[in-house]
# Entry
Amino acid sequence: MDPNYIQDIVPEDEFFKDVKQDDLIVVIMGMTGAGKSTFINDFFDQALAKVNHGLRSCTKEIGVAIGNLPSTHKSWPSRRLVLVDTPGFDDTDDGEFEILRRISVWLADVYQKEVEITGLVYLHNIGHNRMCGSSLLSHNIFRRMCGANAFNRVVMASTQWETITTRNKAAGPIRENDLKEFWKKTLDEGAVYMRVGGSEAEDERRGGTQRVIDHILKNHAVSTRIQEELVNLNKRVKETDAAQELTETLEKWLGDCQIQELSEEKEEELKKISNEPGLLDWVKGLFRLKRNPDTARVEPKVLD
# Structure
């Protein structure tokens, strides 16, 4: 009997068909612009993932970059390493439910094939001068996807230090301390904080990616909460802890705005409450996904 999450798969989804039982799989996550694709390219020292320098999201689907570790690697000589590139939850074209669905079914498919991942890396652009609501949402969804069992296999990393060290050297440490405080619960529960880069030099960025992956590779094999929910507990994506987090957050934002329909006047009211890019689109998407405006719970239509 097929697991229930199969109902959430769409024809456009692409899966890791060449996955091997002894693959070392590291999932790279973070918001749009955090440098996920750059991280992968820096680690392998070649352009395997597409990098975007514009305002629109670059990574739309789940992508994998594959390479073999050196024969001299102290823990995993000559083993195949797979770095997984994922779209951010603040994607410029696709809504948060769709991104969650896409990543979740990919992870479930790997787990269904009895392959566990080695760890996860969550990236944040240190050049951002404030922690906005979308940053909190992305981090909280990531936490729910990981689950307590996986936090000791997680690295929380800051990136793109070159964007601030050339402008304002004092800003870096201040933002870094704020970021650690923002991530405190995740770090207290076993995740490790690391810095990727610190100058414009490519070799320093590359060294940062090497340190992150080396830390991940100290251990092997973990199942995330989202994988266990979809495969072991036979849930649909909309029934998972991560989907619950997303729904509750969007509903709270909607409640804070005290609006029931998006007239032009109320769109302006929403804009005044937050000037955060993308928030208005998120709430518009929430309205599109509501089955009934009188119900307290909201379920994503795309997942039905």
Observations:
- The beta strands are 24-30, 63-68, 80-85, 119-125, 154-159, 192-195.
